[in-house]
Design a protein that fits this description.
Layout (H helix, E strand, L loop, with lengths): L8 H40 L12 E2 L1 E6 L2 E8 L2 E8 L4 E3 L27 E4 L3 E12 L2 E5 L5 E3 L5 E6 L6 E5 L5 E6 L2 E5 L3 E9 L5 E7 L1 E2 L5 H21 L1
Helix pairs in contact: 1-2
Length: 251
């Protein structure tokens, strides 16, 4: 009743300031909650994808070559309970399928931070006449590996980026792989022994190589490619929804 004759500006200002303070408080609380939810979603996604612990090099499965015919050698890669058929197509000199000289000794040139174990047995495909060769997998594999013996003076190209993981003194001596200018192949300098990786997921590998007395290879990988688990898609979808909501809220 006292305000009928005099303006109550002071009371209104206090009321407005109190209302603004309450709104400001809840606004920042809501922002903090959204940040917490966002971080939790990211951590959950990392756990689902197996990103929460330091990565250790997984053992490599090397192909067990089992049968050979004209222009073709067949084998199998085993990942736990999963078998992936491997087929080499192209000209070759011979294939050791069961016993024989173990050209993978010493193991040193085949070991690296990525590859903890060298090929365990004498299985090997020996190439002599250059040309084009293709390696097919019955199921896509991740980051396939080629262990190589005595690629002496060979010019090799895969047509896709490769990584030279290791090289050193092997059964026939010492040499190195010199990566070409496009990063898709190499030239063997000296008696090159070691491992080459093709980063990515592959159902087949095709390469060209040049002729020499003979040079050998086998194929390995650490895992068959598997689809992303449904839980990862669920968490990922929730994360994207949170990010979109947050952007809309802050706009």
């Amino acid at each position: 009743m006292l305000c009928k004759s005099l303006p109550c500006t002071g009371g209104k200002l206090i009321e407005r300031k109190l209302s603004n303070d309450i709104n400001y408080f809840f606004l920042w609380r809501l922002r903090d909650m959204k940040k917490t939810l966002l971080v939790s979603a990211i951590l959950s996604l990392a756990l689902v994808l197996g990103l929460g612990a330091p990565a250790l090099a997984a053992p490599v499965s090397w192909t067990d070559w089992t049968t050979a015919s004209s222009g073709q050698v067949n084998g199998v890669l085993t990942f736990g309970t999963t078998d992936v058929a491997v087929t080499f197509n192209g000209g070759y000199l011979s294939a050791q399928l069961n016993g024989g000289t173990n050209y993978w000794i010493p193991a040193t040139p085949y070991i690296s931070a990525t590859v903890p174990n060298a090929p365990p047995d004498p299985d090997i495909i020996k190439l002599d006449i250059g040309g084009t060769a293709t390696i097919n997998f019955s199921q896509p594999v991740e980051n396939p590996l080629l262990a190589l013996v005595s690629w002496n003076g060979n010019t090799v190209d895969f047509g896709v980026p490769i990584q030279i993981l290791s090289s050193g003194t092997g059964y026939w001596g010492t040499g190195t792989f010199i990566l070409n200018s496009t990063g898709t192949g190499f030239v063997g300098s000296g008696e090159a022994h070691g491992v080459v990786e093709l980063p990515g997921v592959y159902s087949s590998i095709t390469f060209t190589h040049t002729s020499e007395n003979w040079h050998g290879l086998t194929v390995g990988a650490t895992a068959a490619a598997v689809p992303l688990p449904p839980s990862a898609w669920l968490v990922g979808s929730g994360l994207l929804a949170l990010v979109g909501f947050r952007k809309k809220f802050l706009a």
